[in-house]
From TrEMBL:
Keywords: Cobalamin biosynthesis, Lyase, Methyltransferase, Multifunctional enzyme, NAD, Oxidoreductase, Porphyrin biosynthesis, S-adenosyl-L-methionine, Transferase. The keyword S-adenosyl-L-methionine applies. The keyword Oxidoreductase applies. SUPFAM superfamilies: NAD(P)-binding Rossmann-fold domains, Siroheme synthase middle domains-like, Tetrapyrrole methylase. GO terms for biological process: cobalamin biosynthetic process; methylation; siroheme biosynthetic process. Residues 219-427 form the Tetrapyrrole methylase domain. Residues 151-198 form the Sirohaem synthase dimerisation domain. This is CysG_1 protein. InterPro entries: 4pyrrol_Mease, 4pyrrol_Methylase_sf, 4pyrrole_Mease_sub1, 4pyrrole_Mease_sub2, CobA/CysG_C, NAD(P)-bd_dom_sf, Siro_Cobalamin_biosynth, Sirohaem_synth.
Length: 459
């Protein structure tokens, strides 16, 4: 970049134009838009120059240039359109301390004037270092088209409004306000012939009201996957959501129910795979709620079951953000439904355990002894990897190897699969399971149960 672009403050300063022909007139047209004091030295000025002088737009000296004419001028234009005369003009003006542009002579000019798109106070300057004037003209034409005539007016009015807009906190909030003004509200007001300043006040009120509205977080259970297993409350929350922050377990079919304008953020967490840390998730929820958003924190199944709900609630409480918990159908419910069994059954089990196969420390220890008694039922979450280990524990504590075990994979989803096994072959049964799966310990599918030899014997 040989020519460094700057915007020169001309208010109260002199600019000298040397020469009075067409080139001078063309330059003057541009210079007269500025606030500088324009001086012209020309012994034979064009009629336009005479008229401008008569109207007081510039100061005309009807004579040849003399030393000192360019004193106190930061810039001067040599416009004789004659190389020898312009070279002399340049030398004289430069001796006065001005930077000199020789019209249409890039090589001899000390500065150049860019192509300009003028939407005062918005000015776009385009320069190509003389390499591609045609391209510069094309860019200028494109920009002229792109920037509506109202741009300048909008910017001018905005300038006077900047202090008032400081009522909005600096950063994203204030940027959103200005973006809406320049992109939609402002141009619309100009087009409709409305008072742009009144529009600005109205827009600011709207943004301030949104700012004052506190954010809220719904911690929502998305159910096991089938969108029809969402609660009505969950659907309503999704309808209102500004932001949806969801786990990997939540399928697209559920996410599609979110309000169309909602921002959907995935904080996927699957097994031991890559994930967003819990602290990052907490921070993300708080950040959006603090910005005034209605956040739906969407978790697979029921948020109160192996959902790390408490950590998120603690973060919200610490941040003073209001929240509500919307329960969902947990994987255990969907899984027993898939095999037409009950989680509890009179005469068989009066209690049921919801277990996790692994916790933060690795495989999770449980009361295997209690679970080994006949008739016990447990719904084991996140149990695939721990299957072999759990099998060993249970057998060691005396559970019958023939205890029925059912793996329900992708419960309630179109790709739901049911794997029947016994405790003896539990580990092997998990080999073939790719999706999220729930292990139902102590339960076999109803139909399969009818066919078990034990049952036949009892007949
Ligand atoms: N809060 C969730 C559980 C999260 S822990 C709930 O209430 O269901 C994640 C575990 O849930 C998975 O490892 C799997 O064991 C189980 N799971 C979730 N969705 C499932 C589904 N559709 N089918 C089977 N198991 C599922």
């Amino acid at each position: 970049m040989n020519h460094f672009p700057i915007f020169l403050a001309l208010e109260g300063r002199r600019v000298l134009v040397i020469g009075g022909g067409d080139a001078a007139v063309a330059k003057l047209r541009l210079l007269l838009k500025s606030t500088g004091h324009i001086n012209v030295v020309a012994s034979d000025p064009a009629p336009e120059i005479l008229a401008w002088a008569a109207e007081g737009h510039l100061t005309l000296h009807r004579r040849e240039q003399s030393p000192g004419d360019a004193l106190c001028c930061p810039i001067a234009y040599a416009c004789h359109e004659d190389p020898a005369r312009d070279a002399a003009a340049l030398r004289m003006a430069a001796a006065d301390g001005a930077l000199v542009n020789v019209v249409d002579d890039l090589a001899n000019s000390q500065f150049i004037t860019p192509a300009i798109v003028d939407r005062d106070p918005v000015t776009v300057a385009i320069g190509t270092e003389g390499a591609a004037p045609v391209l510069a003209r094309k860019i200028k034409a494109d920009l002229e088209e792109r920037l509506p005539a109202s741009t300048g007016k909008l910017a001018r009015i905005a300038k006077g409004f900047r202090r008032i807009a400081e009522a909005l906190p600096m950063g994203a909030k204030r940027r959103a306000f200005w973006a809406e003004y320049y992109e939609t509200a402002g141009p619309r007001a100009v087009e409709a012939g409305e008072d742009v300043e009144a529009t600005l006040h109205g827009l600011l009120d709207t943004h301030l009201a949104a700012e004052a509205r506190p954010g809220h977080v719904d911690l929502v259970g998305a159910g096991p996957g089938d969108p029809e297993l969402l609660t009505l409350k969950a659907r309503k929350a999704l309808d209102r959501a500004d932001v949806v922050i969801h786990d990997a377990l939540v399928p697209d079919a559920v996410l599609e129910l979110a309000r169309r304008e909602a921002v959907i953020l995935s904080v996927g967490k699957r097994g031991f795979g890559p994930s967003t840390s819990q602290a990052e998730i907490d921070a993300l929820i708080v950040e959006h709620a603090r910005a005034g958003a209605h956040v739906v924190r969407l978790k697979g199944g029921d948020p109160t079951i192996f959902g790390r709900l408490d950590e998120e609630i603690e973060a919200l409480e610490a941040a003073g953000v209001s929240y509500a918990v919307v329960p969902g159908i947990t994987a255990a419910s969907a899984s027993v439904a898939a095999i037409a069994q009950s989680l509890t059954k009179r005469g068989r089990n009066g209690s049921v355990r919801l277990l996790t196969g692994h916790d933060v420390k690795g495989f999770a220890d449980q009361d295997w002894h209690a679970l080994s008694r006949p008739g016990e039922v447990a719904a084991i979450y996140m149990g695939k990897r721990a299957a072999r280990w759990m099998q060993g524990r249970l057998l060691m504590h005396g559970a019958a190897p023939s205890t029925p075990v059912t793996l329900v994979e992708n419960a309630s989803r179109p790709d739901q699969r049911i794997h029947t096994a016994t405790l003896a072959d539990l580990a092997a049964a998990t080999d073939d399971v790719a999706g999220p799966a729930l292990i139902l310990f102590g339960l076999a599918p109803r139909a399969a149960q009818v066919q078990t030899p034990a049952f036949e014997e009892a007949l």
